[in-house]
Amino acid sequence: MAGTPEKILEYLLETRLDSKEHHETTAEDSLLEDFLLTHSVFFPDDKLCQAILGHYHSSSGGGAEQEEGEFIMSQKKCVIHFVQAWRDMEPDKFFSSPVIGHLLEVSCVLPFDWSRMFDAPRCELKAAI
Asked: How far is CA 54 from CA 25, 35, 49, 85, in A?
């Protein structure tokens, strides 16, 4: 299904956040910024968070073990960069939303230290959630 919110997210993750260390939005490439500023109209936070977790836990579905591992790591990095961009775009909403807080809480069991990503001690993050 082309043009669905899920497909737009997938496109962003695959083309705009291709596991680069730092993604900077330019005037020519504002799709990510536009998506983050307007997603609540067509993709509510709860559904977006579910989709983000789905991409974080996705697998390529085949191929060699090394290729599978590389795909999974690349996918996780893209999701992390998306979440970082979202945090940078709307920090107040990001830390005050219970839905986004749940995303971070669920993700805390994953092998990524979210507290380092958000420059806050884990206890502060839990308090914000």
From this structure: 24, 18, 9, 18
